[in-house]
């Protein structure tokens, strides 16, 4: 059972396991939630019992398809109005890039060095999806025909064909090139564990 005694969030050599990030997120006491995305209205919440949020800088970053398009700090006079255990409302001027996956990420950063971290340490974060990616549908060119013989299905289109036999994809041709050597079959498998 040597593997089952070291499943914590930190290894014996103090290397953080990936679970440490999840624990940090689940335990975070500073949160930002959307009230109205169209108007850019958000609710700041602190679940800290004694510390004021004035110890942190709240930064927001707007990203389109993973690239930052705008970033700014929430003015201290807005974010510092959140008392311990309380909430405050803020309004942000958010621009929405067209036809892109648009996200808004909030990061609470330590303002000063502490006994346990340096200034700039990310204490907590939240992320909202402002807009899902929109993709223009591509319409097939030419005609597609479907035929069925003895339970086998053949699909023919401009420059390609597909053949299904016994419920499995048995052939996929594009031009003169065949892409499947034999019918595809499900292959359910997982890696062995010590319990196997």
In short:
The chain is mainly beta.
Uncertain ranges: none
The chain-level structural class is mainly beta
The overall pLDDT average reads 87
Strand order of the largest sheet: 8-9-10-11-12
Span of the ends, CA to CA = 13 Å
Coarse morphology: elongated
Q: What integer value in Å does the Rg equal?
A: 27 Å
Portion in beta strands: 35-45%
Secondary structure tally: strands = 12
Strand and helix order: HEEEEHEEEEEEEE
**Major sheet attributes:** 5 strands, antiparallel
Number of helices: 2
How much helicity do the residues have? under 10%
What does this structure look like?
The protein has 196 residues and is mainly beta. It has two helices and twelve strands; from the N terminus they run H-E-E-E-E-H-E-E-E-E-E-E-E-E. The protein has helices spanning 19-27, 76-79, and strands at 30-36, 41-46, 56-64, 67-73, 87-91, 102-110, 122-131, 145-149, 152-157, 160-165, 168-174, 177-178. The chain has a five-stranded antiparallel sheet with strand order 8-9-10-11-12, with no helix packed on it. A four-stranded antiparallel sheet has the order 4-3-6-7, with no helix packed on it. Strands 1-2-5 form a three-stranded antiparallel sheet, with no helix packed on it. A hairpin with a 4-residue loop joins strand 1 (30-36) and strand 2 (41-46). The protein is elongated.
């Amino acid at each position: 059972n040597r593997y089952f005694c070291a499943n914590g969030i930190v290894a014996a050599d103090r290397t953080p396991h990936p679970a440490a990030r999840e624990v940090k997120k689940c335990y975070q006491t500073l949160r930002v939630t959307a009230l109205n995305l169209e108007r850019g209205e958000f609710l700041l919440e602190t679940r800290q019992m004694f510390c004021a949020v004035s110890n942190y800088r709240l930064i927001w970053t707007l990203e389109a398809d993973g690239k930052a398009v705008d970033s700014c700090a929430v003015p201290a006079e807005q974010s510092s109005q959140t008392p311990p255990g309380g909430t405050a409302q803020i309004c942000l001027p958010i621009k929405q890039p067209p036809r892109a996956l648009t996200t808004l990420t909030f990061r609470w950063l330590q303002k000063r060095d502490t006994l346990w971290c340096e200034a700039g340490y990310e204490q907590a974060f939240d992320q909202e999806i402002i807009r899902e990616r929109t993709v223009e549908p591509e319409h097939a060119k030419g005609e597609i025909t479907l035929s069925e013989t003895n339970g086998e299905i053949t699909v023919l289109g401009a420059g390609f064909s597909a053949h299904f036999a016994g419920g499995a994809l048995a052939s996929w041709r594009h031009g003169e090139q065949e892409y499947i050597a034999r019918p595809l079959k499900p292959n359910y498998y997982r890696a062995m564990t010590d319990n196997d």
